Amino acid sequence: MQATVRLSDAGILAEEARLEARLLAQHALGFTREQLITRSHTPIDNTQIEPLLARRLAREPLAYIIGERAFYGLDFYVTPAVLIPRPETELLVEIALEYFAEMLPSVSDTSLPPCPPVIGGSEDGSGEGALADIGTGSGCIAVTLAKHLPEVQVFATDISTDALAVAQKNAERHSTVVTFLQGDLLAPLRDGQRLSAIVSNPPYIARTEIDTLAPEVLGEPHTALFDIETDGLGFYRRLATEAPDKLQENGLLAVEVGHGQAESVAALFTTSGFAEVAILPDLAGIGRVVRGIWRSWPKTASDEEAESL
Ligand code: GLN
Asked: How far is residue 214's CA from residue 191's CA, in Å, rounded to a whole number?
């Protein structure tokens, strides 16, 4: 039976089954798309395709089988140690790039390619040209930003050493330099470090939603999917309260959020003292990114008293 039909019989959407069958065949045979088309009249050796097809029929994510996924125009290595990059996360990259273009036009490279594999910024990563991607996974956000902002020093943290190994390979694949740090959220960043931007696509699925997830999603690392708290907002609470310590004045905090979470996350940002809090919709009109600008710590009564002396 044809691969496309078998895939759709296994529950894969009909419109995706054809594309997936082609990508599996390309990968199994080591062909480009063009080679597959021009050789379509010659018989294909099914023994090469069959093992890959069997994995996909068992609902293993396509990206893990072929070992990569495109994100913001770049191909990223992926393994089951990392979340598979999603198209909606590209909005977070765009928001960060817009911020740098407005705030620091000198560091923004809007003319890609070429992109020199050089790194600027100050030695210790403080100062205007530094950002951090928290929970970097495959590194798709950090590496894409490093590619487009060659003079900005890019840090990326993750609790998983296996994920960081994949992210490091992706940084090398795209000739970018990213400083990868292992640890919990912002903890691995140096004390006193002041960044111009912090971005994150943290785990935001509540564990109670586990039964609603497709088998492919459940094949992704659960630490990358699920929030530590029951409402899906645990990482946002921590980011909103911990980020101000690491942001310079007018620094950006931007996060991707799950469907229906934007208002609650925006409220957390506001409560933490962020200004210009905004919800940005994705192409489907769903609030997908929340961002805020860190001005400075609000003055306390004792500050005001001290100033009036
Ligand atoms: N930053 C990575 C991504 O956006 C990983 C996110 C995660 O593991 N939650 O794909």
From this structure: 40
Ligand 1, residues 75, 82, 158, 178: which to mutate, most atoms within 8 A of Cβ? 82
CA dihedral 108, 90, 78, 234 (to 10 degrees): 110
Instruction: Write out 139-189 in H/E/C secondary structure.
Output: CHHHHHHHHHCCCCEEEEEECCHHHHHHHHHHHHHCCCCEEEEECCCCCCC
Separation CA 5–CA 7 (nearest Å): 5
Strand partners, 132: 155, 198
Q: How far is the CA of 83 from the centre of ligand 1 (A)?
A: 6
Q: Are 189 and 246 in contact (CB under 8 A)?
A: yes
Q: What is the pLDDT of residues 194-239, one digit of tens each?
A: 999 999 999 999 989 999 999 999 999 999 999 988 889 999 999 9
89 lines ligand 1 (CB under 6 A): yes
Q: Considering only CA atoms, which of 31, 116, 94 is closest in space to residue 283?
A: 94
Q: Tell me 71's DSSP state.
A: E
User: Pick from 104, 134, 133, 137: which is nearest to 121 by CA?
Assistant: 104
The span from the CA of 57 to the CA of 39, in Å, is 25
Atom of ligand 1 nearest to the CA of 225: 9
Which residue owns the Cα nearest ligand 1 atom 5?
A: 137
Predicted pLDDT of residue 270: 97
The distance from CA 43 to its chain's CA centroid, rounded to whole angstroms, is 40
Instruction: Decide: 152 and 129 in contact? Cβ < 8 Å.
Output: yes
Q: What is the pLDDT of residues 246-263, one digit of tens each?
A: 999 999 999 999 999 999
Q: How many helices (H) and strands (E) does the chain have?
A: 13, 9
d(CA 101, CA 18): 40
